[in-house]
Amino acid sequence: FDENGVPPERVLVQTGDRIIHLQNKLERHDVIDVFSGVVNPSMLTGFEGAFKVRPGFKLLQIFAEWPDESRYQLGKHLFWIRHHPKASGGIFSRRTRHIHQKRNEAIRKSYINRCKDVVAEHSNHSGKESLSVLIPVYRGLNETRNCLLSLYASQKQNNSSFEIIVINDKSPELELTEFLENEAETGRFTLLQNPENLGFVATVNRGICQRQKMDVIILNSDTEVYGDWVDRIVAAANKNPKIATITPFSNNATICSYPECAKENELPAPISGAGLDQLFRERNKGIIRDIPTGVGFCMFIRRDTLDQIGYLDQQIFGKGYGEENPSCLRAALEGWRNSLLCDTFVFHKGAVSFQSLKNIHVNKAVLTLNKLYPGYDA
Question: Which of 91, 155, 183, 366 would be a feasible disulfide site paired with 375, CB 3.0-4.6 Å?
């Protein structure tokens, strides 16, 4: 009831872009008893409704709306929706949600302060680009060279302009460092050199803070991109301003892997990565789908999202795997969407930096994620 004792005309549930109107059709004697001096005993004060949603993480926001169209938010909950209708439920208790909110605010403040203090080193930024492609590098000369060559080629095929920022995370491979330094002198990208090995998260965060107003794409140095891949990402981002992250398909990208999900696939012979990308482009043109979390091998992040939730949490994950997942889940808690870009394929070799330690890092990351976000595995 508003300050004048007027009950709401309707109750609305919002999930994504959908708004569902609940019907005022239930008798609520408990409400009538409490508000006996205000409510007509015959008034129906309970709202009810049913609607279908796809399985996955869903943010449900509940509003009361009055005849003058003023609204009040009654609730905001992140649910994991399973296929079985009785198995859905909120994955966060109030205490857990409160802990996350406090942590998120600390991360956001740290991000804002960091961005204010950063001055780009040896910047070739012309100010014309619409987004930054961030490439953290640690090992793999051949893979890094192939990644950069594919980027150079794609710059000519995209209408969307983008700059390339390479961050050398104190690589132990001298030949790789020399290659990056020589390439940077050509002016094709901005090179940042970490004074010590910081790990993936801190290295990406350094790149994120170089440009305070630009959207970013995190791109592993062992990937290859094709054609107008950036234009397709930008087109998907422009479809809905609440899309926080966008991840394309790949042969090696956990939940975004093709042809087998959650597998490290070889390219199906005899087709090439470029050939697969062309097939995806033709068959899945313009299609995007919601997913619980993005995958950091190639992931677009909207700057507005970063401004709200802060950068990647380097205290949770030091060096290893799953570093992008907490950020994606934090974004989902704030009403943002993580999306799979179905019309784009990016080749990913995988495990170049930490091949011998991969299983250890993966298992540790999964344990941490399940502690922070109960129900994550589901």
Answer: 91
